[in-house]
Amino acid sequence: MLWSDPENKPPSFLRETQAMLRRSSVLLALAMVVLMLVVGAR
């Protein structure tokens, strides 16, 4: 890597988008678990 290469930092909107996707995937996984429990309880 050369000293003139730009730093490997993603822009702020990309970091925010990644964080939002991470949160939504956790919420989706929790919703699936709750759904399976509700369906299994019937």
Give a short account of the largest sheet: none
Low-confidence stretches: none
Rg over CA atoms: 19 Å
> What is the end-to-end distance?
60 Å
Percent of residues in beta strands: under 5%
Shape: rod-shaped
Tally of contiguous helical segments: 1
- The succession of helices and strands, N to C, reads H
Helix amount: over 70%
Strand tally is 0
Overall pLDDT, averaged? 89
* Structural class by secondary-structure content: mainly alpha
Protein name: Morphogenic membrane protein MmpB
Keywords: Membrane, Transmembrane, Transmembrane helix
Transmembrane segments: 20-41
Organism: Streptomyces omiyaensis
What does this structure look like?
There is one protein chain. With 42 residues, the protein is mainly alpha-helical. The chain has one helix and no strands. The protein is rod-shaped. The protein starts with 11 loop residues before the first helix and ends with a helix. The model has no long low-confidence stretch (mean pLDDT 89).
Write the layout of secondary structure elements.
Layout: H1 12-41
Protein traits:
42 residues, mainly alpha, 71% helix
Briefly say what this structure is.
The protein is mainly α and 42 residues long. It is built from one helix and no strands. The model has no long low-confidence stretch (mean pLDDT 89).
